[in-house]
Amino acid sequence: MEKDAVAVITMSNSFGKILTLTTFGESHGQVVGGVLDGFPAGITIDETFVYEQLQRRKEMPMATPRKEDDKPEFLSGIYEGRSTGAPIAFIIKNNQFRSADYDDLRDVFRPSHADYTYLQKYGLRDHRGGGRSSARTLVVRIVAGCLAQMALQQQGIKIHAYVSQIGNLQIADGDLQSAEPLLRDVASAGDSIGGCVQCIATGCPIGLGEPEFDKLHASLAQAMMSIHAAKGFEIGDGFALAAKRGSEANDCFTISNNQIRTTTNHSGGVLGGISNGEEIVFRVAFKPIPSIQIKQQTVNTASERCEIAIKGRHDVCAAPRAVPVVECMTALVLLDALLLHRSRKNFSSLSHDNP
């Protein structure tokens, strides 16, 4: 795009249908924040839980040395510890940004970052920490997702995620201690490494999701793939199903405690885009953090070839810190689907009562 051209392209910053989250802020701005609209009234809000989940994102092995307070300030939508039904607005202050760390990157395109595409799309970019494309903005999703988890817990729905793989190392029960030697080796080399997060949602009722374009697993995939560094999504047995036969992959029905259940869960709790009452199980793959200290070839804004070795404060692996983000994005999807399901169910009831 020419320097004198005026960008007229807007940016989409909202997620959800009935329950909508709109986020704002940049990595090195004064604050990041969000507005959560459509949240049910009367939900007890535990701000301590929100703060604990924000801290949980930071307390991971080989995480970035940047340590923010991450204390959300709720501006509206909560009164005497309960949601009012009004939009819940909140901010989180940025106190530990060091923009000078990025001065050398102002005119350089970092490999596998959004620098080049942002500049081409919008005509300018915030080089300080990646601006809007920074994973710093994910703290907003954690706050909103924690609120959604509180609403879901009242319906008996629980969500649990954990790191299942780092590099080629399989992680048993999400115990990251077994991965610390590998992470230290990668960090000492100035490199980074990829990983996977597995998520399980229990207690979901039958009927969440739509049979066509808003399939539940499609909504989950959209949510997970919107997380920074996410590059893969599979539900149930996922890609492994491509190597199986129907006789191996089908989830046969049975009767258990007077309820229809499936004997296996290869489908991951979703059939025809609709939850079937079984556990919802999926995995998300995260690429290696692209900011590494090893020299790489790139080009600058003058279209000149150059080398780059990225300094600053960066994670070695995205997967550990992505765990609470995966949980919270799952909560936003499930609560939105639950509200949509109930609204259509209530409308159907009204239409039958008033022909």
Radius of gyration: 22 Å
* Tally of strands: 18
The CATH topology comes to: Chorismate synthase, AroC fold
Tell me, what's the shape?
A: globular
Total separate domains: 1
**Biggest β-sheet strands, sense, barrel:** 5 strands, antiparallel
Runs in which pLDDT lies below 50 for 5 or more consecutive residues are none
Nearest-integer average pLDDT? 90
What is the CATH superfamily?
A: Chorismate synthase AroC
State the order of secondary-structure elements, H for helix, E for strand: EEEHEEEEHHEEHEHEHEEEEEEEH
Strand content: 15-25%
How would you classify the helix and strand content by structural class? alpha+beta
Give the class-level CATH name.
Answer: Alpha Beta
Give the termini distance in whole angstroms: 57 Å
Question: Which architecture does the CATH hierarchy give at level 2?
Answer: 4-Layer Sandwich
**What share of residues is helical?**
25-40%
Describe this protein's structure.
The protein is built from seven helices and 18 strands. The longest helix is centred in the C-terminal third of the chain and has 35 residues, at 319-353. The chain is an alpha+beta fold. The strands form six sheets. Strands 1-2-3-7-4 form a five-stranded antiparallel sheet, with helices on one face. Strands 9-8-10-16-11 form a five-stranded antiparallel sheet. Strands 5-6 form a two-stranded antiparallel ribbon. The protein has helices spanning 47-58, 115-122, 138-153, 180-188, 216-225, 246-249, 319-353, and strands spanning 14-15, 20-25, 31-37, 73-76, 78-79, 82-83, 88-93, 158-166, 169-170, 195-202, 230-235, 253-256, 259-262, 270-271, 274-275, 280-286, 296-299, 305-308. The termini are far apart. The chain has a single domain, classed as Chorismate synthase, AroC fold (4-Layer Sandwich), CATH 3.60.150. The radius of gyration is 22 Å and the shape is globular. Helix content is 26%, strand content 23%. Helix 3 (138-153) crosses helix 7 (319-353).
